[in-house]
Amino acid sequence: MTISAKEEAAAPARRRDTLPVRKIVRRKLSDEVFDRLLKEIETGLYAPNAHIPSERELMAAYGVGRPAIREAMQRLEKLGLIVITHGERARVSQPTAADVIGQIEHSARHILMTQPGSLSQLQDARIFFEIGMVREAARLADAQDIVRLEAALATQAAFLDKDSGRFVAADMDFHTTIAAISRNGVLEAVSRAMLHWLSQFHASLLLWKGHETVTLEEHRIILNAIIAHDEDAAAEGMRTHLMRSRGLFLSPTAQVFAPSPISNMTA
Q1: Which of 54, 64, 256, 267 has the fewest beta carbons under 10 Å from its own?
Q2: Same domain for 171 and 82
Q3: What is the pLDDT of residues 224-240, one digit of tens each?
């Protein structure tokens, strides 16, 4: 089979037509500086709490101007990777799990306010999470953990019908203390974050008569199960507690869509 000269000439044109279009984009100098500094931090060239070279030193090392250095440093600061203090060289941060999760605070609130169903999904995630947490608490709790839980419950009881804000703070403290028993900083940080995000929407939940008393009773049931190291009873107590709370939250009589400071949440 022979190919005519006309067909052979057309072949390169056809190949060019089928090539994917991938334009070459010129990167900003600050992007290059950012990538290099990020790699140096990640590989340990600059250890946590170590100072990064000054702007002048970086300009000389990378052969770029001050604006590129500053823009890259600001991006690193936004990510929580470095700390910039006026008059001092920037230093590499040593973030905790809480710091990392805190980076998504505003994005999380935006999702909850704008995406239908996201608030209900967060509540479902919390129920799943806290049932697992309370099982760990029942398995691992020592005498000091029990003292802390008893103190949170006593504080909550002291503010019953007196100070709803402090009652709620003690309520949240009870739940985060359970998470802390895991001795896992990531789990504790996630617990605090979920409670905080939900608190922005729970504030307008109407307090039904006797609701606070029921909350205290349910907390006592959970605590007794933890004291007895009964994982199943603790998990069932938490499931009952949070499912009731979820039912109140989703009640058609509860106004829940305008985030505001905590005042009436009990869960």
Answers
A1: 54
A2: no
A3: 999 999 999 999 999 99
